[in-house]
Amino acid sequence: MSEQSHGGPEHSGAVEHAGGEESSQFAVDNPGIPPHRPRLADEDPRAAKRAERQVAFLFGLSIVGTLLFFVGYFVVGQIGPGTPFSTIRLQNLLLGLGTAFAMFGIGMGVVHWAKTLMPDHEVTEDRHEVRTEADRQLAVGMVEDIIDETQIKRRPLLRNTLIGAGALAVLPAIAIFRDLDDTDNRSDLASENFGPERLRHTMWAPDVRLVRDPTGTPIKASDVTMGSAFHVIPEGLNELPPHDMLNQKAKAVVLLMRLNPDSMQVSPEREDWNVDGIVAYSKVCTHVGCPVALYEQHTHHLLCPCHQSTFDLTQECKVIFGPAGHALPQLPIRVNEDGFLVARSDFHEPVGPAYWERG
């Protein structure tokens, strides 16, 4: 039986074919570009000048915000142990408002500039490949036209305030990142640069006991049952001054777990780094340093909640998913004569993100 007798889609009328006389009645003409509606600044020079001053004011506000940030950062002073709470609150207020005004001023200034002064004509242009020298010159001309349309050459007030705001806006970030290195203020690190050596050495050392975080209770091997997980810090950490305690804890905190020894793949050089399946690994993710705090007992996977990097505990915390660059550093441990878990040594590599240069 033929397709037509079955009422196939080609002959049943269910499909409309373009290009035929019957379908031409449904064609829609290209409406083209809608007529341009001039803005007030396009017709009134005073309105354009007023808009220019408004944009310059916003860029100036960004400059004031950056200066406000530096007042809080340098004038109020550095925060440390014993700093009054009122000083900390004032500094946080100045830093927050300064950063907000710096970013808000530039962002709103550029938006207001585009909406009030830059040409807003709608245009259409056929896409074509740029191959010949003439086409290249045409592309260069288009870039020059864009620069002319911004009016940045004809309005030096906008250009200069934008340059000033943009140049100052990046300085707070430079100051913050530079302040991460306090080597000059610490005699024990005076000979070290700001780099992986700062993360290579922690409070872990031979015979330092593993204690629970935050109570500081020592841990015996018998306390660690199969499938359990402990958040662990080195003994003595809680006795440090608050500022030093936080800095040391950020590097030294580890996760302690117990697995079936038969399920573990142990490298020959690490055979004495665990105690009957009890292993300790850095809690600092090797991607950007987030805390690895989720342990899936049935899969023996450690998960970083920030970017879902996943580490396989049975393969010495090898990365099996996510952006982390390498395995979590392992802390060698043993049992002392009193039955408590202690470190054999410090970590054998820097803890934390993989973007550090590692020797």
Q: CATH superfamily of the largest domain, please?
A: Rieske [2Fe-2S] iron-sulphur domain
* Number of alpha- plus pi-helical segments: 8
Q: What would CATH call the architecture of the largest domain?
A: 3-layer Sandwich
The secondary-structure class comes to: alpha+beta
Which helices and strands, and how do they pair?
Blueprint: H1 40-43, H2 45-75, H3 85-116, H4 133-149, H5 156-169, H6 171-179, H7 197-200, E1 210-212, E2 229-234, H8 242-252, E3 254-258, E4 278-282, E5 294-296, E6 301-303, E7 310-312, E8 318-321, E9 333-335, E10 341-343
Antiparallel strand pairs: 1-2, 2-3, 3-4, 5-6, 6-7, 7-8, 9-10
What does this structure look like?
The protein is an alpha+beta fold and 359 residues long. The protein has two domains: 40-123 and 132-179; 197-343, Rieske Iron-sulfur Protein (3-layer Sandwich). The protein is 34% helix and 11% strand. It contains eight helices and ten strands. It has helices spanning 40-43, 45-75, 85-116, 133-149, 156-169, 171-179, 197-200, 242-252, and strands at 210-212, 229-234, 254-258, 278-282, 294-296, 301-303, 310-312, 318-321, 333-335, 341-343. The strands form three sheets. Strands 1-2-3-4 form a four-stranded antiparallel sheet. The chain has a four-stranded antiparallel sheet with strand order 5-6-7-8, with no helix packed on it. Strand 6 and strand 7 (310-312) form a beta hairpin. Helix 3 runs antiparallel to helix 5. 23% of the residues are buried.
